[in-house]
């Protein structure tokens, strides 16, 4: 690929993807499109490519690029806050942004990999498999279902076009701190523990999530592009781990021995278990996640991003 464009490239996953693409395709010209609504320029330290500050949902692609199109497009731009109350804004911006992108790239059928979400499965326990009924429980998840619907409709009209969607599960890792509340459990619990506070988790701590390290997500995303295939795939670790295990893992890398402080879950409907069935992902994309939870947390700490801007108020034990 000589020209690679990434929407949402200043965000958490997007920035990790951009920097990896820069290393893997050193001769390519990269262009990041982001409006910094849920991204940060600090995430792109070391980035050497082009940058377009734009709201994807309102961008006039033709006026901006005058018919120029990339060899590969990664679409990660999205309002990702699942607690956002304005359903119209979230649905419009996420769906319209993808619709405009598809229409601009249609003439040359530029290969696209886009981010969808495990939130599309809804609130239910058990293993999540592509092909299961979708039951979005919030506007964010609903918008991602619409992205998948758009892609499917376009592929019916243009069956030779390569469009792949990845349902990201519970991603954690470097460059997520700017997100604030929507940042991962690993980020928030580490912050509490670095202040010497007991990590607060819901009773009994045995709820499980498919925590997946961002380096694995980036590798899966690039593999989807390289595969030349169309479809939707799960992007998780395939190994659900409990909240208690997350605390244990953080104690291990931080050198602490802080016990969880349990409290009642305030939500009437709360998902007790998420787990990605990675069978189709491994088969179609020829790749599987490499990082266990413990390995991911260790790499996160070693990167410096887990403790960046946080003063340690306790000594290692």
Task: Report on the architecture of this protein.
By secondary structure, the chain is of the alpha/beta class. The protein has a domain at 3-170 and 212-235: 3-Layer(aba) Sandwich (Rossmann fold). Helices cover 35% and strands 16% of the residues. The protein has helices spanning 12-24, 61-65, 87-105, 139-157, 185-194, 214-227, 243-254, 279-285, 293-303; strands spanning 3-7, 29-34, 50-53, 72-75, 112-117, 163-168, 170-172, 200-202, 208-209, 211-213, 231-235, 241-242, 261-263. Strands 3-2-1-4-5-6-11 form a 7-stranded parallel β-sheet, with helices on both faces. Strands 7-10 form a two-stranded parallel sheet. Helix 3 (87-105) packs parallel to helix 4. The longest helix is centred in the first third of the chain and has 19 residues, at 87-105. The protein is globular. The model has no long low-confidence stretch (mean pLDDT 95).
Features:
single chain; 317 residues; alpha/beta; Rossmann fold; seven-stranded parallel β-sheet; two-stranded parallel ribbon; 13 strands; globular
Chain-wise SSE layout:
Blueprint: E1 3-7, H1 12-24, E2 29-34, E3 50-53, H2 61-65, E4 72-75, H3 87-105, E5 112-117, H4 139-157, E6 163-168, E7 170-172, H5 185-194, E8 200-202, E9 208-209, E10 211-213, H6 214-227, E11 231-235, E12 241-242, H7 243-254, E13 261-263, H8 279-285, H9 293-303
Parallel strand pairs: 1-2, 1-4, 2-3, 4-5, 5-6, 6-11, 7-10, 8-13
Antiparallel strand pairs: 9-12
Helix pairs in contact: 1-6, 3-4, 5-7, 7-9
């Amino acid at each position: 690929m000589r020209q690679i464009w990434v929407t949402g490239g200043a965000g958490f996953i997007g920035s990790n993807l951009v920097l990896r693409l820069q290393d893997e395709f050193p001769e390519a010209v990269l262009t990041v499109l982001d409006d910094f609504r849920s991204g940060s320029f600090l995430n792109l330290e070391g980035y050497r490519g082009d940058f377009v500050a734009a709201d994807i949902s309102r961008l006039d692609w033709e006026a901006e690029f005058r018919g120029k199109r990339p060899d590969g497009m990664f679409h990660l731009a999205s309002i990702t806050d699942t607690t956002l109350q304005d359903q119209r804004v979230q649905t419009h911006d996420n769906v319209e942004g993808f619709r405009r992108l598809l229409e601009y790239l249609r003439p040359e059928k530029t290969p696209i990999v886009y981010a969808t979400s495990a939130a599309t499965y809804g609130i239910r326990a058990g293993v999540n498999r592509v092909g299961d009924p979708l039951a979005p429980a919030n506007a964010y998840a609903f918008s991602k279902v619409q992205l998948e619907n758009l892609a499917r409709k376009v592929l019916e009209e243009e069956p030779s076009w390569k469009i792949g969607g990845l349902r990201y599960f519970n991603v954690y890792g470097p460059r997520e701190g700017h997100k604030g509340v929507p940042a991962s459990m690993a980020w928030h619990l580490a912050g509490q523990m670095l202040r010497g506070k007991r990590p607060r988790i819901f009773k009994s701590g045995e709820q499980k999530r498919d925590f997946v390290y961002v380096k694995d997500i980036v590798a899966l995303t690039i593999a989807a592009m390289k595969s030349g295939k169309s479809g939707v795939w799960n992007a998780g670790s395939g190994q659900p781990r409990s909240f208690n295990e997350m605390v244990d893992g953080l104690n291990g890398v931080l050198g602490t021995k802080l016990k969880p402080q349990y409290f009642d879950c305030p939500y009437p409907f709360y998902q007790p278990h998420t787990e990605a069935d990675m069978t189709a992902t491994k088969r179609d994309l020829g790749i599987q996640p490499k990082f266990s939870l413990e390995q991911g947390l260790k790499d996160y700490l070693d990167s410096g991003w887990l403790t960046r801007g946080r003063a340690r108020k306790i000594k290692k034990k």
